[in-house]
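Journal club prep — side note

Before the paper discussion, L.F. wants everyone to see what a predicted structure for a comparable chain looks like in token form. Sequence:
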Amino acid sequence: MIKIGEHICFEKFPLLLAPMEDVSDPPFRELCKEQGADLVYTEFISSEGLIRNAAKSVQKLDIYEKERPVGIQIFGANLDSMLGALEIVEKSNPDIIDINFGCPVKKVVDKGAGAGILKDIDKMVSLTAEMVKRTKLPITIKTRLGWDFQSIKIVEVAERLQDVGIKAIAIHGRTRKQMYKGDADWKPIAAVKNNPRMHIPVFGNGDINTPERAKEMRDIYHLDGAMIGRASIGNPWFFKQVKHYLDTETHLTPIRISERITMAKRHLEKAIQWKGEKLGIVETRKHYSNYFKGIPDFKPYKLKLITEDNLQNIEKTFAEILTIFD
């Protein structure tokens, strides 16, 4: 039994949808949940944006009953701003509040937030401790191995964060300096899990791009669950495929073109309902490459999908794809 706090329990190796900017919004979270994601997280939300009532930040607080359990992720480096954001987030009634200490993007890091705080572990721990004191909701952390290879102290860092009260930690197997280059290293994450003082769930993240890799994370590295990010973009079925493989060591049959179109259309419809037609169309585009990955001679149709602004024309393109490729 994997437990996060007192009330969130999973019977076996859970699959988590990673928080991803402009990806893990309510429409996509709903689709992933339907396909087997056990726990989903919002896009990361700026604490500074929340306390200033910035429209984009506030909209990201939207969560729905069908998503539960769901975590809202926030980031920031200023304690007062983070505590103010915490009060705002609590009103949305999430199941978990997650703190992002892993985002490697320069504009976040330059403010000492995200992975930037990995340069100041004492501040990372003290900020977390104050957050834990101010809420009854479970606080979880998402972070990286360290700032660079020379500064990896993730076993110590995870233990210190546990000691101030976090209820779970998800670790991406790269340093900030690596960004998303090279291979994720899961061995240091396993070292966190194998620390005899650790008693909270330790989730692995990074390069879980096949069902076999998820099984490796469970059976070889013995982590408590897998946080899946990029492999799920335009591929909400990935959660179902992984679960099937973990249970049977066999692969599900490939997704038919008609199923891909149905899912892509549902995704687009939900995005439009939530964000309006213009933004819904634009923000669904990043998923199309994966929705239709591996189809020979598909490039002209992909170009139509990622450049067309008219909803009726997009629907015509879907119909054309179905006629030609299914």
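L.F.'s comment for the group: DSSP finds 14 helices and eleven strands in the chain. Keep this in mind when we get to the figures.
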